Amino acid sequence: MVNPMNAVTDNPWLAEEAAADAPADTAGGNRIKIEREQIKLEKRLCREVGRAITDFNMIEEGDKIMVCMSGGKDSYTMLDVLRKLQKRAPVKFELVAVNLDQKQPGFPDHVLPEYFKSIGVDYHIETQDTYSVVKRVVPEGKTTCGLCSRLRRAILYKVADELGCTKVALGHHRDDIVQTLMLNMFYGGRMKGMPPKLVSDDGKHVVIRPLCYVPEKDTVRWAQYQNFPIIPCNLCGSQDGLQRVAVGELLREWDKKFPGRVESMFRAMGHIVTTHMMDPELHDFKNAKATGIADPNGDMAFDHEEMPVSASLPGLQVVQLSS
């Protein structure tokens, strides 16, 4: 199978917008290098978001996309890339940026409206005091994310209805998705991540994650290049003891020591062999019987599966067993 990233395609979602080459490196070498890196990163972001939109049919003709804006690096990047793709997309669609002002103390409520006006995007600010609710209900020292996200989700779905939006776009990136998988494995005893596209529980809303192929380091770098007016989250981001924070740090450490490991984990989420897991809902193990008919997938139970040679995990010792 041809990797869509490397395939030659006429798909407008994946076509690279013509960009002026950086000037020859004659003077100001460092500045020229940064400009070239910025151009390459912009092309990569547009390509990966376009690939996700194509692979999962995220955006269709006539869609009105509600782009959920928290004021963080990821939502800024998502809005920026979607606006770039909107200019050359094979379908016509609208974008409306939506921020939920949760009345956190010290929240700079002027920042996002000023930014939206400066770039000329349609926007809506929804003001709901969920901060007081969360602080009143959740005991001091306990994680606020669960209740906060449920309240936020319900409000945003209501706003999507009021604005006539057909899709709700969230800014979760590749690393968020892998983190969620690991959190569910470590603490929930289940293999569950974040889907790139889903229908809400009430069946009324379609949620998309256009950044699902984008690594976090790319949104960090793009936010720095674009100098987005970042707003920190005082309700969730300040809780340093969160399990998600710890798992995120683990993944970043792995990515430094073992480049490609996080990407490999992400790819595995799209290549699940249900017959080699243990979920009876996905495969009928009880009634598995010998039929005498060869299975094209074969029985690999006794096969030695070749793995790339790499350093062992921290704290683990690799022992070679003789057969």
From TrEMBL:
The keyword Nucleotide-binding applies. It is found in: Cytoplasm. Its main location: cytoplasm. Pfam families: ATP_bind_3 (PF01171). GO terms for molecular function: 4 iron, 4 sulfur cluster binding; ATP binding; magnesium ion binding; sulfurtransferase activity; tRNA binding. It catalyses: cytidine(32) in tRNA + S-sulfanyl-L-cysteinyl-[cysteine desulfurase] + AH2 + ATP = 2-thiocytidine(32) in tRNA + L-cysteinyl-[cysteine desulfurase] + A + AMP + diphosphate + H(+). Belongs to the TtcA family. Residues 64-227 form the tRNA(Ile)-lysidine/2-thiocytidine synthase N-terminal domain. [4Fe-4S] cluster binds at C145, C148, C236. This is tRNA-cytidine(32) 2-sulfurtransferase. Its EC number is 2.8.1.-. SUPFAM superfamilies: Adenine nucleotide alpha hydrolases-like. Binds 1 [4Fe-4S] cluster per subunit. The cluster is chelated by three Cys residues, the fourth Fe has a free coordination site that may bind a sulfur atom transferred from the persulfide of IscS. Homodimer. The thiolation reaction likely consists of two steps: a first activation step by ATP to form an adenylated intermediate of the target base of tRNA, and a second nucleophilic substitution step of the sulfur (S) atom supplied by the hydrosulfide attached to the Fe-S cluster. GO terms for biological process: tRNA thio-modification. Pathway: tRNA modification. A motif (PP-loop motif) lies at residues 70-75. Catalyzes the ATP-dependent 2-thiolation of cytidine in position 32 of tRNA, to form 2-thiocytidine (s(2)C32). The sulfur atoms are provided by the cysteine/cysteine desulfurase (IscS) system. GO terms for cellular component: cytoplasm.
